[in-house]
Amino acid sequence: VQLVESGGGLVQAGGSLKLSCAASGSIFSLATMGWFRQAPGKQREVVAQIRNGGGGTNYADSVKGRFTISRDNAKNTMYLQMDSLKPEDTAMYHCHARNVYPPLNVWGQGTQVTVSS
Q1: What is the DSSP letter of 70?
Q2: At CA 78, angle to CA 29 and CA 104, rounded to 5?
Q3: How large is the average pLDDT for residues 28-33?
Q4: Do 77 and 23 meet the contact criterion of CB atoms below 8 Å apart?
Q5: 58: which strand partners?
Q6: ∠ at Cα 18 (16, 19), nearest 5°?
Q7: What pLDDT band is residue 61 in, cutting at 50, 70 and 90?
Q8: Which residue has the higher pLDDT, 54 or 43?
Q9: Which whole-number Å values give the CA distances from 44 to 41, 54, 88, 96, 102, in the listed order?
């Protein structure tokens, strides 16, 4: 399985971006998918996750009410709609896929999001 992110860019505070994570391989629908971010000099942190099956979600407190994670298993793609962006959202955003069996733990290369004040 390979993951490829897209949709990052430069946006003014208060603006919106939509990230996409395209996955190869048929295991996508089984995997718990997530978005993580890492700002310079900081540790990587989870932004949002979405499970397989019913697609239950969870979010970091810092993005609740502003970001929405979703997935389209038919297209092997996960999304992150980011609204009301803040300068502190600036980071490299990575998508991640994991599954217990068959085992899976894969990271994408990342897409840069920069929010100007």
Answers
A1: E
A2: 50
A3: 88
A4: yes
A5: 49
A6: 135
A7: very high
A8: 43
A9: 10, 27, 14, 12, 25
CA atoms within 13 A on the CB side of 81: 7
Q: For residue 65, list its beta bridge partners.
A: none
Per-residue pLDDT at 26: 74
% of residues, the chain, pLDDT over 90? 82
Classified as helix, coil or strand, 69 is strand
How many of the other CB atoms lie within 10 Å of CB of 17?
21
Q: Please determine, for residue 54, whether its predicted confidence score (pLDDT) is greater than 70.
A: no
* Cα angle 43, 47, 50; round to 5: 135
| CA pair distance 90, 112, nearest whole angstrom | 8
Contact 92, 110 (CB under 8 A): yes
pLDDT the model gives residue 1: 83
Tokens standing for 52? 């397989």
